[in-house]
Amino acid sequence: MSFPSSDSTDTRRPVEGLSHSELSAWLDARGLPAYRADQIRGWLFRRRVDSFEAMTDLSRRLRQALAGEFTVGSLSVHRRLESRDGSVKYLFGLHDGGVVETVWIPEPDRVTLCVSTQVGCGLGCTFCATARMGLKRNLTQAEIVDQVLEAQRRCPDGTRISNLVFMGMGEPLANYDATRGALDVITDARSGMGISPRKITVSTVGLLPQMRRLMEETRVNLAISLHSVRDSTRSELMPVNRKYSVSQLLECCRSLPVPRRKRITFEYLLISGVNDLMADAAELAGKLRGIRCKVNLIPFNPHEGSGYSRPKEAVVERFGETLRARGIQTHVRRPRGDDIQAACGQLYHAAEAAPGGALRGVG
Ligand code: SAH
Fold first, then answer.
1. I need a surface site. Which of 37, 42, 140, 220 has the fewest CB within 10 A?
2. Residue 356 exposed, middle or buried by CB count within 10 Å (0-12, 13-18, 19+)
């Protein structure tokens, strides 16, 4: 592929970062018909070719003009780690030496891809490995889209990605425009990837204005990392709670334009001795009353130096039962890929600042 990597004189942009109208405008400026945009996008997002050369029904002149200004692809594969449970973690290299992680999660009836939206994260949640990196930078729209394209290209038996979760590194709603632009391409049924928004979940710490925008502008599912309904506990775990308190967050949830047949997902991390008492479950159920929602319980996934631990299985079960007994639809999320540090909250790496960004360590 035409990944320009560390050549800093190469000013070409990845073509998959262009919206349909930007590509049409580029064609129009050259006196070319707008339908060429659909054709080019078909090659990119349906057939997933990795060069303009491969777009054989375009004239040579057009292919050369495209290649003069754009690249195809923005990621290189640094590493590919396969878990004993079949999950695959990709470490994708970026043109500036940064690295992001993407996780392929096969299940009997679906394949879910977990994508990243930032290099590192600036929100400082105390239980999350990614937070230790700090925020390096936002990913571009092309870099988000390319995680899906590259993971799909590299699937050996051609199994199709059916579901997408924006639960990798970073806070998607702190990088709203790129996330939104990527969602447009991914869900565009006419000339994009055509993945239904019903199969896509965006997870957020709860940035209220952007959450509302996302619900107004798209039809994707919303997941909110809640982890406690007590302000003191939640602020300790998630500094963002000092900006948007639990009651502001839940009030916002009550007024979000969520379609009638949909529910908001609340993710609730269970950390031993922090938020796993039966009284916490009862309080949680009480606070969620009247919100059309479900709860995903995530037993804490350990990582080096976190200082937290996972509750015993019986505690997790009882917490779930307490919620269910109070009418809250509840699932316990089992960790996937924890042997390759691919589970929730385990995405972290140290990349060298030197050009080329060789990896120092993983996990
Ligand atoms: N910033 C967004 C997207 C990241 S999603 C968000 O916070 O929602 C990652 C999910 O994994 C979040 O629900 C997060 O709270 C959870 N998580 C983070 N660290 C974890 C850990 N060590 N064990 C289990 N889940 C964790």
1. 42
2. exposed
Q: How far is the CA of 97 from the centre of ligand 1 (A)?
A: 25
For ligand 1, mutation pick of 112, 295, 298 (most atoms within 8 Å of CB): 298
Residues 117, 118, 123, CA angle at the centre, nearest 5°? 110
**Domains in the chain with CATH codes:** 14-71 (1.10.150.530), 76-357 (3.20.20.70)
Task: Report how far ligand 1's centroid is from the alpha carbon of 225 (Å).
Answer: 7
Conformational region of residue 120, where left means phi above 0, alpha means psi within -120 to 50, and beta covers everything else: left
220 touches 200 (CB < 8 A): yes
Helix (H, G, I), strand (E, B) or coil at 191: coil
Per the annotation, the verdict on 304 as an active-site residue is no
* pLDDT tens profile 173-193: 999 999 999 999 999 999 999
Ligand 1, atom 7: closest residue by C-alpha:
205
**pLDDT > 90: percent of the chain:** 85
CA 319–ligand 1 middle distance (angstroms): 19
What pLDDT, in 10s, does the model give residues 89-128? Answer: 999 999 999 999 999 999 999 999 999 999 999 999 999 9
Query: Is 267 designated active site?
Result: no
